[in-house]
Amino acid sequence: MENRKIARLGREVSVVGLGCWQLGADWGEVDEKDALAVLHAAADAGVTFFDTADVYGDGRSERLVGRFAAAREVFVATKMGRRVEQVPENYVAANFREWNDRSRRNLGVDTLDLVQLHCPPTPVYSSDAVYDALDAMVDEGRIKAYGVSVETCDEALTALARPNVASVQIILNCLRLKPLERVLPAAAEAGAGIIARVPLASGLLSGRYTASTTFAADDHRNFNRHGEAFDVGETFSGVPYEVGLEAVERLRGLVPADQTLAQFALRWIIDQPGVSTVIPGARNASQATANTAAAALPPLSAEALAGVRETYDELVRPLVHDRW
Predict the structure, then answer these.
(1) Which residues of the chain have pLDDT under 50?
(2) How many CA atoms lie within 13 A of 175 on its CB side?
(3) Alpha carbons within 13 A on the beta-carbon side of 11
(4) How many Cβ atoms from other residues are within 10 Å of residue 310's Cβ?
(5) Which residue in 2, 33, 146, 223 has the most C-beta neighbors within 10 A?
(6) pLDDT tens figures, 63-118
(7) What is the pLDDT of residue 89?
């Protein structure tokens, strides 16, 4: 497993991490035994970076990760902010401490490795008071570092201008290329980490879905298809499902015979300059192990990289590029 250093964190993280949203909720049921098996399989394969949030399953994901992390030496990033109405007035020091206390209890630690603001309202990224409150939490020993999770490139760039923002979590995959233009170079210059989320476009880039695929009622790929519950970009990267399927068929022709489409898609992210870690989710141990194998693959060919760009420019860019 390759590890990459994040200067503002002062440590290395595994280039393939594990996203733990699906262990809490919104992806259909994942029972406790399977969830713990996923976590241990990822760690066994060299994963050291685990990403969760206080809102995933109302704390269930944090609690499971906490149980696991008590037995393994890993780095846990969590997120806060989505448990209240999404208005800037709720992003204040008193709420930060309340959310922090809850996450520390869930994870069973006194100090959190990394806390990220969880896609807050856009004005929050520009608030001096917000960063003062986060700096105070570092000084108090509540958190070791803080970062942001964003929906747009402009939000990422605003946050990166702050000297103590250690990381930016942003959607980046073969169907979402806009962060390559300005965000990744800015993060590299600042020494901040880039955490690439939604790397498989909610499973589209696994190549397992068809026009007739159905999803459970409690799966966000069903109930948030058009942004009914939260930002539509979190579901299939905001790409219309039928367009995503067409793009996947084009991408299949670029995949080497010894790789899966999912591994190809993860390797594409790993190959982008400035990426620190990519955090695919997994619903079972075999998926977690297969995802980590992308770290050992050779870099993609120039032809493959060009093919991804061509697919994006022709099918996806006209629909979503300017939005994010």
Answers:
(1) none
(2) 34
(3) 14
(4) 12
(5) 146
(6) 999 999 999 999 999 999 999 999 999 999 999 999 999 999 999 999 999 999 99
(7) 97
Q: What is the pLDDT of residue 185?
A: 98
Task: Using CA atoms of 310, 316, 319, 322 in order, give the dihedral in degrees to the nearest 10.
Answer: -70
Residue 109 · residue 73 · CB < 8 Å: no
Pure H helices in 108-229 = 128-139, 153-160, 183-190, 220-223
d(CA 215, CA 222): 6
Tell me the two tokens of residue 234.
């979190």
CA 147, 277, 54 angle in degrees (round to 5)?
45
- Nearest residue to 319 via CA among 151, 177, 162, 131: 177
Note the pLDDT of residue 24: 87
Residue keyed to tokens 């980490």 = 193
DSSP β-bridge partners for residue 76: 50
Cross-strand partners of 14: 3
CA distance 113 to 293: 26
